[in-house]
Amino acid sequence: MFFVLAKLNKLLLPSLTKSGLDITKAKPWQKALLAYRYYVTSRALDKK
Known about the structure:
Blueprint: H1 2-12, H2 28-47
């Protein structure tokens, strides 16, 4: 399930690090998006 979510995230959600986002200056919603993507990606890698 996490593998599918990770693929959907890659397709649908913006990549904040490629756009040069400085994490220390990120807005709260951007930090939440980064945390969510990290959580899903790490779970998808654990299941593989």
